[in-house]
Amino acid sequence: MGVSILKDGSRCIIRRASQRDAAEIVRYSNAVGGESDFLSYGLNQFGHNVDEEKQIIREYDQAMNRIFIVAEIDGSICGMLTFWGNSRKRLEHWGEMGISVSKRCWNNGVGTVLLKYFIDWAKDGGIIKKVNLMVREDNHAAVALYKKAGFEIEGRIKRAMKVDGIYYDFLYMGKLIDY
Length: 179
Ligand SMILES: CC(C)(COP(=O)(O)OP(=O)(O)OC[C@H]1O[C@@H](n2cnc3c(N)ncnc32)[C@H](O)[C@@H]1OP(=O)(O)O)[C@@H](O)C(=O)NCCC(=O)NCCS
What we know:
Blueprint (H helix, E strand, L loop, with lengths): L1 E4 L5 E6 L5 H11 L17 H12 L4 E8 L2 E10 L8 E8 L8 H16 L4 E7 L3 H9 L3 E12 L2 E11 L3
Parallel strand pairs: 5-6
Antiparallel strand pairs: 1-2, 2-3, 3-4, 4-5, 6-8, 7-8
The site of coenzyme A has 22 residues, from strand 5, helix 3 and helix 4.
């Protein structure tokens, strides 16, 4: 667990998700989906119920190269970060990361502290040597956040997302994890 003071002075707890968070994570994700067009799902389109989410959290806990992190302010979840490392031995040193923050908390540093906790965890664990992610190319806040954390653009995935009939490209970004 980590505690950080955000830009506005509020206290943010960063910790691993537990089974007890499942209902709030489902509620949070269904709401966050409607706050931007940058996620793969929209308002109420998260698509997992509480039992399914409990199982997913369990699966994150079952491997050393996976982590599910939440950010909490005043006892409620305001952001989350997931990283799923590959199960194959030859690929176990890399995986894909996803992140979201509630709109009411944007630009206050929550994304930055979630990423820092995650990168520290990856470095300490010693298994993860590469983190990949995909981001819509016009998601300027996210690209800025990732670049600030040391991610580099490695490629482009054309027509990766379709929202209201319009296609968007994803940038493929990556960060090497070294001490
Ligand atoms: C992307 C997201 C996770 C960022 O979270 P956050 O808590 O607002 O992030 P932070 O406040 O730590 O950092 C955001 C940075 O982007 C910068 N930023 C914001 N809008 C920007 C813009 N339009 N252009 C460039 N930089 C921008 C901020 O200034 C800040 O940088 P700074 O700390 O150097 O000032 C959040 O906006 C979000 O959840 N968006 C919707 C879901 C999403 O896009 N998820 C990522 C999918 S790949």
